[in-house]
Amino acid sequence: MTTTALLVMDVQNGIVARVPDPGYVPRVAAAVRAARAAGVPVLYVVIGFRAGHPEISPRNKTFGALPDGAYTPGDPGAAIHPDLAPRPGEPVVTKRRVSAFTGSDLEVLLRSRGVGHLVLAGLATSGVVLSTLRQAADLDFRLTVLADGCGDADPELHRVLLEKVFPRQAEVTTIEAWTASLG
């Protein structure tokens, strides 16, 4: 039997603060609680850099625009939102690019736990969720996307990804439907 894991991605203070939906954090917190109650491992993925951002190339349009100190160990914006904080023993994976796999040990953690099915939630739909979904599909993971566990600054792009792009490689469902399926 394939193990399922919930990936909660980029729910850091500096990112969550830009989400206009006040229900976002409580919904994702409900998914986390349900996963824990069902024995589904919860793994967190965060974007993080060393002081001075030596990992960021000036050619990288996304990360090259970050101000000094952003998403470094001393940045309060880099911390996981307190309402979604991991419990002791729940892994926090630091990535260096948009995909949860790039520059991280995520695949090693998943393979060592026998995980073959990933349930994705995170910010933004057109960022970490899209990039992680594409890479995970290429790595032969079974995928589920929690549509209301994702968010994006561009509502139309969010809609197109959830309705037209993601269903080609993943099951797209709601947090309520997914948590109900956990029994």
Would you kindly provide a brief summary of this structure?
The chain is an alpha/beta fold and 183 residues long. It has six helices and six strands.
Describe this protein's structure.
The structure is a single chain. This protein is α/β, with parallel strands linked by helices. The protein has one domain: Isochorismatase-like (Rossmann fold). Helices cover 32% and strands 21% of the residues. The protein has six helices and six strands. It has helices at residues 13-16, 24-38, 106-112, 125-138, 155-165, 175-181; strands at 3-9, 42-47, 92-95, 115-123, 142-151, 171-173. Strands 3-2-1-4-5-6 form a six-stranded parallel beta sheet, with helices on both faces. Helix 2 runs parallel beside helix 6 (175-181). The longest helix has 15 residues, at 24-38. The protein is globular and about 45 Å long. The chain starts with a strand and ends with a helix. Residues 4-176 form the Isochorismatase-like domain. It holds the Pfam family Isochorismatase. GO terms for molecular function: hydrolase activity. Its EC number is 3.-.-.-. It is an enzyme of class 3 (hydrolase).
